[in-house]
């Protein structure tokens, strides 16, 4: 059901929703950008629609709302432990279609990858409803169409931002009476990106060969990558973390266990007991990430992990392009196939 209303009426609606919901959206965080005097677009709580940055791609995804950068799992003393708690509000997130599809990948990893769901993820994720921001035009480096993640109908509300007003499609019954009171009924179907400037050809799984794993392609990345991990932290589908036990100074027998984001590009990520370490050269880390995003995950779950948001390309200080990497992999395999025919 479609509704339109002026921004001031939508803001009043947001205020009434805020009694029950924490409301997150991409927001301009001034002077926190990569270079001096630059901003960053990240997810934070908002009070009014004017704070939402919808004309630019966010540098970071909404994953930190359900998978915080640092999260206390439990507190311990010598004799017992106590699980951490979360806030009692529900969560509304303003999010693009690709990121709703990205969240589905996170759900698969945290909730369906093995016999037990991750309770620390689940307890936040089950609170979430999506307000899908209409996304009609592709941004730089996006290749969502190639990855089939440009479209979704998995939302409670869809929204299109116009000058001083918003138009919404409200699918979730719990919100309908609020919107009926605040706006006038209109017809509205959200539009989707149909074409990106960047296109990738993802090779089919059965075409991946052992030769690809030893190809010189990865040596190029070994020279260029600096293992900063920005591609991991900006990626909505990267879900790796380390656990840390923090002992309190006053009483080192008590403390807390936290989990903290980690990433396959970062040094020491593969450190194991006994001093073992794997993928010490940076090229093999690029290979590992690439294969996970476009091969291994697909083999297990039937869809690609990468959603083509292009944030890894946006963020890489060494101008390493993941979309170009996928296309190079495809070209190598096509050449191999032609040679073997
Ligand atoms: S690998 Fe890059 S393009 Fe793919 S989902 Fe992650 S950040 Fe987006
Ligand atoms: S952002 Fe670029 S340089 Fe940094 S780890 Fe990723 S690929 Fe390497």
Terminal Cα separation, in Å?
55 Å
Share in helix: 25-40%
| Radius of gyration (Å) | 22 Å
How many beta-strand runs?
12
Strand content: 15-25%
- Sheet having the most strands: 8 strands, mixed
Give start-end ranges of low-pLDDT stretches.
none
Structural class of the secondary structure composition?
alpha+beta
Tally of separate helices: 11
Q: What's the overall geometry? A: globular
Ligands, deduplicated: iron/sulfur cluster
Q: Mean pLDDT across all residues, rounded? A: 96
The succession of helices and strands, N to C, reads EHEEHEEEHHEEEHEHHHEEHHH
Can you list the strand order of the major beta sheet?
Answer: 3-2-6-7-8-9-1-10
Please specify the SSE layout and strand pairing.
Elements: E1 2-6, H1 7-17, E2 21-29, E3 40-45, H2 63-66, E4 70-76, E5 81-83, E6 90-95, H3 97-112, H4 119-125, E7 128-133, E8 157-162, E9 165-170, H5 173-182, E10 184-186, H6 210-213, H7 217-224, H8 230-234, E11 241-247, E12 255-261, H9 282-301, H10 311-315, H11 322-340
Parallel strand pairs: 2-6, 6-7, 7-8
Antiparallel strand pairs: 1-9, 1-10, 2-3, 4-5, 4-12, 8-9, 11-12
The chain binds iron/sulfur cluster (2 copies).
Task: Provide an overview of this structure.
The chain is an alpha+beta fold. The protein contains eleven helices and twelve strands. It has helices at residues 7-17, 63-66, 97-112, 119-125, 173-182, 210-213, 217-224, 230-234, 282-301, 311-315, 322-340; strands at 2-6, 21-29, 40-45, 70-76, 81-83, 90-95, 128-133, 157-162, 165-170, 184-186, 241-247, 255-261. Strands 3-2-6-7-8-9-1-10 form an eight-stranded mixed beta sheet. Helix 7 (217-224) packs across helix 9 (282-301). The radius of gyration is 22 Å and the shape is globular. The model has no long low-confidence stretch (mean pLDDT 96). It binds iron/sulfur cluster (SF4) (2 copies). Residues 225-231, 265, 315-318, 320 line the site of one iron/sulfur cluster.
């Amino acid at each position: 059901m479609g509704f339109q209303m002026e921004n001031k009426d939508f803001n009043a609606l947001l205020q009434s929703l805020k009694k029950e919901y924490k409301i997150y959206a991409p927001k301009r965080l001034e002077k926190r950008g990569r270079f001096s005097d630059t901003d960053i677009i990240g997810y934070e709580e908002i009070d009014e629609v004017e704070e939402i940055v919808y004309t630019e791609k966010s540098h970071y995804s909404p994953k930190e709302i359900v998978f915080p950068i640092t999260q206390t799992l439990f507190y311990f003393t010598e004799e017992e432990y106590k699980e951490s708690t979360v806030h009692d509000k529900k969560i509304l997130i303003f999010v693009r279609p690709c990121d709703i599809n990205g969240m589905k990948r996170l759900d698969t990893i945290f909730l369906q990858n093995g016999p037990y769901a991750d309770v620390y993820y689940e307890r936040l994720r089950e609170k979430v409803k999506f307000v899908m921001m209409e996304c009609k035009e592709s941004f730089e480096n996006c290749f969502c169409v190639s990855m089939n993640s440009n479209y979704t109908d998995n939302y409670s509300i869809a929204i299109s931002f116009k000058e001083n007003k918003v138009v919404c499609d409200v699918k979730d019954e719990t919100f309908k009476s609020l919107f009926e009171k605040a706006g006038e009924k209109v017809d509205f179907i959200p539009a989707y990106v149909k074409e990106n400037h960047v296109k990738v050809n993802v090779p089919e799984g059965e075409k991946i060969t052992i030769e690809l794993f030893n190809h010189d392609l990865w040596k190029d990345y070994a020279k260029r990558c600096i293992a900063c991990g920005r591609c991991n932290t900006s990626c909505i589908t990267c879900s790796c973390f380390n656990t840390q036990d923090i002992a309190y100074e006053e009483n080192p027998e008590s403390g807390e266990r936290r989990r903290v984001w980690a990433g396959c590009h970062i040094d020491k990520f593969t450190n194991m007991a006994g001093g073992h370490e794997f993928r010490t050269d940076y090229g093999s880390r690029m290979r590992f990430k690439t294969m996970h995003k476009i091969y291994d995950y697909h083999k297990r779950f039937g869809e690609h992990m990468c959603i083509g948001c292009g944030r890894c390309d946006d963020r890489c200080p060494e101008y390493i392009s993941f979309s170009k990497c996928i296309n190079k992999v495809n070209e190598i395999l096509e050449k191999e196939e032609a040679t073997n025919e």
